Structure formats: C-alpha cells, structure tokens
Amino acid sequence: MCGHLLAGLTLLAVAAGAAHPAEPAITNSIGMRLVLIPAGQYTAGSPTTDVQGEADEQPTHRVTISRTFYLGQFEVTQDEYTRVMGSNPSWFVRGAPGEKDLGGASSARWPVDMVAWDDATEFCRRLSQLPAERAAGREYRLPTEAEWEYACRAGSSMRFAFGEQLSSADANVRPETGTVGGHPVPVGSYRPNAFGLYDMHGNVWEWCADNYDASAYERAPAVDPAGPATGTGRVVRGGDWQFPARYARSASRDFTRASRRDLGNGFRVALPAP
Fold first, then answer.
1. Cα 78 from Cα 112, distance rounded (Å)
2. What is the 3-state secondary structure (H, E, C) of 205-229?
3. Is 163 helix (H, G, I), strand (E, B) or coil?
4. Which residues of the chain have pLDDT under 50?
C-alpha cells in the first residue's frame, strides 16, 4: 500500500511540473536510507477519554503537513554516527558499560545512544557538509514534533501504528508489569509501519527539533507547526526499551534538556524533498 501511495505522489509531482520529482526512497553517501513521507493531515494528540493519555497531549487538533519530506527509515546507527562524527558515545558498545549486553555481537547496527540534542543537530550539520551530500543539495535536520507524529502514525488514528495495543512482537519496549532491564536492539528488528519506517515505537527515544511546552497544543498553528520559540527542554518521542508501551504511543510527548546524554536517547534524520 505504501509503495502505491508514494508512487502516486511522485506522479502527481511530475504532473504538476516538478523539475526534479521526489524519489520514493533514497540512499545517501554513507548508506543511510530515507523514505519519502507524503504531505497530508492527521489528528495530533490523544482524546480526554484515553486513560493512557496525558494533559500535554491535549487538546486534539487537526494538523496539516503541507510539504513532502524524507525521514530516516531507521534510527541513526552507531556505525553511521561514528562515520560522520568520528566517535561513538554509546553505552552499548565494546569498552563501555553496556558491552555485556552485546553478547559478543557487533553494535554497528544498534541505534546510537547517549546522544544529546546538541549532538544530534551537529550530526545533521556535518552530514550535510559531506562532499557528496553538498553536491546533491541535501540539508539534513531533525524532524519537527508534528512531522514525527504524522510519520509515526502513518495513517493510523489509534494509539499505535499497529492498533490500540503494542505487543512485544511489535516493538522493543518494557512490559507494563516488568522491571527495568533489557537493552536496545539492532535497528529494523521489528516490522515497519505503513510508511516503511522502523522502530518509531520503542528502542530509543528520538530527538525532535522542537522546544517543549506542556501547553503547546492550545495555540499550535494548524499548518506545519514548528513548536514554541522557547521551552523547558527539547522534545523526545517514541519511548525506549526502558519504558512501558504507553510511553511509545504515537501521541506521547516527553522532553529533556538539550545537553543531556542518556542511554535511552537517540534520533533519526529528516530531509526536505525536492
């Protein structure tokens, strides 16, 4: 279904006279794969009737994403981060405290963790400056919170992209009644959503571009909201392996300070489409 939708979008771009119609997916110069997210509308937040909802997810409101964009098919991996930044801050890597959780395997395809918002934005800047990326005219950035939720839902109006409940077969999250334990897993270990995106629920929290404000939805613009000018921190979305599924809901919002590095924080990149 997703392939037909993206193919149709490309045809519409051609019909509209676009000089360089967007491709359904691209692979950049360091092997990162990004998929095209079509423009559209969705209902942001969760209704007051949802017992898992939080006050900062209300009121629900219609949001228009007016421009197509690319989003990383996977969370940024340790290998990709190291190739761009020259170092790997992860907890789950050889020589770090989380090495025991690797079980002797390589962590190259594990999501990078212990990444601050400042690190994630610097990664986007450096990736954009690579010669091949500059030649292609690519300017990477973090997704806005609105883009992230739209991409996570992938057409679903339920709690999760896969339905009202999230099982251990759907995402790497902590069981509701379990104790903290576990670890991230290699990206793409679970099935993708309808847009072809992996691990939008669970694995690691993902930084968004926006400042966080608990009351942001009370005055958010209806078209391409980019978040408030100031806030108490930067938005993270999607939950992680340490948190129960309710924190991985499509509507769930959280935040932390931009300089904080945590073994549950990672990110994925966005890219404007032609």
1. 4
2. EEEEEEECCCCHHHCCCCECCCCCC
3. strand
4. 1-19
